Amino acid sequence: MRMYDIIHKKRDGGELTDEEIAFFVNGFVDKTVSEGQAAAFMMAVFFRGMTDAEISSLTLHMAHSGDTVDLSRFGNLSVDKHSTGGVGDKTTLIVAPIAASVGCKVAKMSGRGLGHTGGTVDKLESIPGYKTSLSAEDFMEQVEKVGVAVIGQTGNLAPADKIMYALRDLTATVDSIPLITSSIMSKKLAAGSHSIVLDVKVGSGAFMKTVDDARSLAEKMVEIGKRCGRNMTAVITDMNTPLGNNVGNALEIQEAVSVLKGEKTGDLRDVCMTLASEMISHSLGISVDESLKKAENAISSGAAFAKFKEWISAQGGDTAYVDDTSRFQKAEYIHSVVSPVDGYIGEMNAEKIGIAAVALGAGRAVKDADIDHAAGIVLLKKTGERVSAGEELCRLYTNNHGSIEEAEKKYLEALCFADEKPTVKPLIYGVIR
Ligand code: URA
Fold first, then answer.
1. Which of 389, 410, 408 is nearest to 397 (CA)?
2. Which of 120, 183, 213 to mutate to test ligand 1, by most ligand atoms within 8 A of the CB atom?
3. Confidence of residue 384 (pLDDT cuts 50, 70, 90)
4. pLDDT at 116
5. In ligand 1, which atom is closest to the CA atom of 180?
6. What's the CA gap between 287 and 282, in Å, rounded?
7. 44: helix, coil or strand?
C-alpha cells in the first residue's frame, strides 16, 4: 500500500477502506508518512468529506494510537462529558459532582485553556493543593471510592490526534466536520467511558458559529459514538454570550460553588441541569425526567456540594477555599467598566470577552504560557438587560495594571447596545441522542 494512492483516492472523492485509513494513521504516528502527505490527505478530506464508515474507522484508529483507559470494572456506570469549548464554561465543575453524588462514575481527563476559551484543569489548579495528575491506580481508586476524579490529559492519549491537530492548525484544515469529529471522539473513546455527553457550543464564542453547523457536528459525533458502542447525547447550547457571570479561573470556581450550594440560578445552572440529567440517565439507565429530579435533589439536599468537597479533598485541594470562597486570593486591581449609554445590551460577543479575559492574564495566547488564576471578568449585566449611562457593567480583575486599558477596550467592543429590548437567543437549541 502507498500513501500516494490513498491521497489520490480521497482527492478524487473515493471511499477509503479501514486498512487504508489505518495505514495513514499508523504511518503518520511512526513517521513513515510525511507531514506533507498528511497535510495533503487532510486537505483532501476537507474538500471531499468522509462517509460515516470512514469517520468511525479514522476515530477508532486514532483512539488506539496510544494508551486507552479501561473503565470496564464500572460497567455501564462510567460517564464522561465534553464541551467543544466556550467562555465562562465551568459546567464540568458542577455536573461531575452532581452525577457522582447519585452513583455515576465520572473518570475524566480535561484540557487546559488555549486562546479565548478556558480549560477545566486551569480552573481546578486555582484551588491550592489540587493535583491535576494522579497515577493510573490512584485515579481508578478515587473513581471507585468517591465516584469522580478529574485530571489533565495524559501525554499518550490518542497521540495521532495531537500531531494531526497541530498540522491542521497550520494547514487551514481545522474546521472540517469529519476531522473535528474524529479528533474529539478519538480522545473520548480512549478515555474509556461507556456513556458520553457532549456539550456542543454554538455562537460567537464557539468553534461552530451557526446552529446548522453545530447540529451537523453534534449529529455526526453522536452517530460515530454509537457506532463505536457508546451511549451518546449531544446538547447544543448557546455561546453567543459567556455562560454564567464569571470568566477566569478562581472566579469560575467561586461561581460553580454558588451553583452547587443552591445559591445561584440562571443560565449556568440550567445548562448544567440538562447535561447532568443526560449523564445520569445514561449511567443509571433511568428516564431523563427522573434523572432531572435526582440532579435537582442533589443540589437542594447538599449532596452535590458535599461530593464536590470530597472530590477536591481526595485530589489534595484545600476545601477551606470552597467552604469560604472569600479566601481565594483577590487580584491586586479591580477595575469597574461603566456603560457609555442608556439602553439595552443587545449583544455580548463571547469571543471578544474571552480575549479581554486573556489580556488580563486569565488565559494563554500561546501554549504553555503562565496564567494568573485570580484574573478575569465578573459580568454584572448580560444580554437583554437595561443599563443606564455610568452604570457598572462589569469588573475586571488582574494583577497586571498595564492590561486594564486594553481589556476594557476589548470588553466594550464586545457589546452592542440597543434602544429596544432585544430577543435573547435560546440557551439550548437541541438535544440529540
Ligand atoms: N476540539 C478538538 O479536540 N478537536 C478539534 O478538532 C476541534 C475541537
1. 408
2. 183
3. very high
4. 81
5. 6
6. 8
7. helix
Q: pLDDT grade, residue 210 (50/70/90)? A: very high
Give the integer Cα–Cα distance in Å for 397 and 152: 26
Ligand 1 geometric centre to CA of 397 (Å): 29
Cα–Cα distance measured from residue 126 to residue 118, given in angstroms and rounded to the nearest whole number: 13
Q: What is the mean pLDDT of residues 39-57?
A: 97
Instruction: Return the C-alpha cell found at 105.
Output: 462514575
In this structure, are residues 176 and 132 in contact, taking their beta carbons and an 8 Å threshold?
Answer: no
Q: Would the pLDDT of 121 be above 80?
A: yes
Instruction: Confirm whether 161 is a catalytic residue.
Output: yes
168 in active site? yes
Q: Which atom of ligand 1 lies closest to the CA of 184?
A: 3
Q: How far apart are CA 115 and CA 357, in angstroms?
A: 10
Does residue 187 carry a catalytic annotation? Answer: yes
Which residues, including other chains, have CB under 8 Å from residue 229's CB and lie 6 or more apart? none
CA R_g for the chain: 22
- Ligand 1 lining (C-beta closer than 6 Å): 84, 165, 174, 179-180, 183-184, 207
* 376-379 and 392-398 strand pairing: antiparallel
Closest by CA to 62, choosing from 215, 196, 178, is 178
Q: Which atom of ligand 1 has the smallest separation from the CA of 174?
A: 6
CB 35 within 8 A of CB 167: yes
